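2024-03-11 09:14:02 DEBUG pipeline.ingest accepted 1 chain
2024-03-11 09:14:02 DEBUG pipeline.ingest length=496
2024-03-11 09:14:03 DEBUG pipeline.predict start
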Amino acid sequence: METKKSGYSSRFALICVLIGGSVGTGNLWRFPRLVANTGGAAFIIVMTVCVFLTALPLLYVENFMGRATRHSAPGAFHDICGKKYTCLGMFATLAYLLMLAYYLVVLAWCLRYAGMSLTGGYFGVDKEALFTSVTTANPATIGVWVAALVLVYFGIAKQEALEKVSSILMPCLFGLLIGLVVYALTRKGAYEGLKYTFTLDPKSLVDINIWKEALTQVAWSIGPGTMMMITAAMVSHKDGDITLNSHVQAFGDMTVALLGTVCVLPIIFANALSPEAASEICASGNNGLTFMALTEMFEGMAGGRFVGCAFFLCLSFAAFTSATLMAMCGVNILIDCGVSRKKGSLIVVLFLAIVGLPSAINPDILNNQDNVWGFGLMWGSLFLGIAAMKFGAKKMRTKFLNPVSDIKINKTFDILAPYVAPLLVLAVLVVWMVSSIGWSDTPWAMTFTGVTTGTILYQWIVVFIASIFLSRWYNKKIVANYYDGEEFPEMPEGLL
């Protein structure tokens, strides 16, 4: 069978796919808020440390698994660890798809607000009431959501479409962000925002809460364990630099987050009535900061319509590029089983539509799903640790990673990947689960419109049981085993 060396037209395209898949809305609304609320420069330093402790070691493992097996996440665990481990990759992928189902609804919100920025649709109205109207069974929002689903289909139905989308939107995202940063830094009062952002209190470096939030942001934003890197690496050159690609993904994500911070916080401090008022705005939730506080500021500033449109387009571009790669995680499972790419893409998009419709109608359901599957994503990091232990981290490093990489990995990887990184993620997950007990007056209620410990555990268990049954079907249907245990295989032509 003829083979192709790479499914990407250029290294630039691969970089755009990697960064585009990792960057999401959290880079532009959650990260700035965390910087403002959890120590400023201390948070940035701690998160950078967490990247080296958890993100990079696990990304190396994930990249290796995709490159070695040329399979989706379930197939990668099947080939590397054995077929009884297929369910781990299946659960991680399902969690990612369930997150994507409501994430596309958020994309629709961002697109609606980009349009309203230009038309002045949120000018002179109550911002909270408008947000409720836009997000609760709003026909226009649902229409935009359906359009987003259609665009995702066209973005994944062909392998080359994925890289074209990323290669166009990522430069646009960086261009818009840099323009917004320049604008923000020229505003009177912007200095106070920069000072607030980059002031370092050394005592904050040992604050447990900062470490918890930093590890959580790494898991949610950079995404080790989302199985996205497996998907991206499936069609990369067998001799491509694994460690460099992992570094590009991790620090490309960090760069976008920092640009977003240098844009958002100066705008807030430049337009707030006082530093105290700015701090209060930063303490509001993601939705309050983005769709209410910032829109209020866009309304009052010169050129606010265009600034607001640019900001919400940045959010939309970030959401869409990550959404396409997220959807590909599901499509590749079906391709492994002999389903055509177009048919698999249609199945995945229909699944996203069915599962996402309740979130499009009721924001309380979206909030529930955000917590259930936001935390659920962390399980993927634990599974990568299991893969590193099962295969052997030292063998992975010496035989597969270092020979194809300019950035050589030292022996610390043998400890970080199978033990330290997954244990740190597990510790954070346990802390969040314990804290969730107090989020509701009925902490164990199985409700889908609230955030409770019970609903989180219940949905995890249901999906894990489903993963076991789907894995049995997958193990019978998987059409080929590309990894022979000796070296990286060439990319099978059928993957394109």
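2024-03-11 09:14:41 DEBUG pipeline.report The chain has a mean pLDDT of 90.
2024-03-11 09:14:41 DEBUG pipeline.predict end
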